[in-house]
Amino acid sequence: MSATESATGAVASDGYDDRRRKLQAFDDTKAGVKGLVDAGVTSIPRIFHHPPESLKDIVTPCPPSSCTDGGGGAFAIPVVDLSSAVRREDVVAQVRRAAGTVGFFHVTNHGVPAELMAGMLAGARRFNEGPVEVKRALYSRDRDRKVRFGSNFDLFQSEAANWRDTLFCDLAPDPPPPEELPEALRDVITEYGDAVMKLGLRVFELLSGSLGLRSDHLREMGCAESLHVLSQYYPPCPEPHLTLGIKRHTDPGFFTVLLQDGMGGLQVLVDRTWVDVLPLPGALTVNIGDFLQLVSNDRFKSVEHRVPANKSKDTARVSVASFFHADLKRSTRLYGPITDGRNPPLYKSVTAREFIAHFNSVGLDRWTLDYYRLARAAY
């Protein structure tokens, strides 16, 4: 090795070690991004700086008063009415179109009471804006804990951290005892999880019908055994042009049910253009995950999405994402593509546990589906 190569390697190693120390120092505070805001930072630490190429196409969401159709620009996320007044075959057709194209759709008349949704958002805000000692007591990177607080689950794997904190609650199949839940949302999160589970089962029936299967097919496959509810908190960012609330990614599970507050912020990649998904009053948003794209053999699409950093000067953005999956601890079932007899399988079979383990190992910087795509299907 030449002296130049040796010196370059030393610089690279020093840079890696320095970044690692800064990541660990941030993690050791156990206060998350909100802790930095409370400390009065006027510039964000370099560990949150994203590469310029990932920030160059950031667009500012239009205000709700001027964009009330559920989407930004000329594009609107499909809206599916789940009321009994709509013919089932029409609803199935709408879900099939939405799941097979943009991968996102709003649902209205979904059965989750408006006061319950408002209570869930309020509880998530109370927790994040409450005593830091409560959050520190729950701070953990142990994924076996049913209830845990953290910032950036992939903090030590990702190229750049995101300006966001998260409260994780695993509500099914084994809900935590009430005393493990933070008091700020103890009275609402279990009821909200039960309501979202009922909605999720209805969505699975519609998705099964969209694939030409019996309405209980996906449920019988164990697709709705697990429910993880994540309360996401995006504090105001002093330098929003340098970072993201959450980088572009796809969700790993079967599908996600998202509850946004009035600020919005979610953006979806449609035809190579980022479009806003503003909250539709009273609606919830469903998006297809990687595992369902695999199981559907690409008939459903798991689409990239992101959240820009919060540009507000004084108000945090709050959302609640509910992820449906198989039982990640007990299930040993191999999941593979459901084929229609005309098209060959595009992915190899995998257990849910293996799929999520791979996702957790690589974080948000890589698309998990590519790892399981069969070589002959790569094009």
How many β-strand stretches?
14
Ends: how far apart?
Answer: 40 Å
Shape label = globular
Mean pLDDT: 91
By secondary-structure content and strand pairing, the structural class works out as: alpha+beta
Low-confidence stretches: 4-11, 61-74
Helix content: 25-40%
Organism: Urochloa decumbens
GO molecular function: dioxygenase activity; metal ion binding
Family: Belongs to the iron/ascorbate-dependent oxidoreductase family.
Pfam family, one: DIOX_N
Provide structural commentary.
The protein is an alpha+beta fold and 379 residues long. The protein is 32% helix and 19% strand. It contains ten helices and 14 strands. The strands form three sheets. The chain has an eight-stranded mixed beta sheet. The chain has a four-stranded antiparallel beta sheet with strand order 6-11-8-9, with no helix packed on it. It is globular.
Task: Give a brief description.
The protein has 379 residues and is α+β, with helices and mostly antiparallel strands.
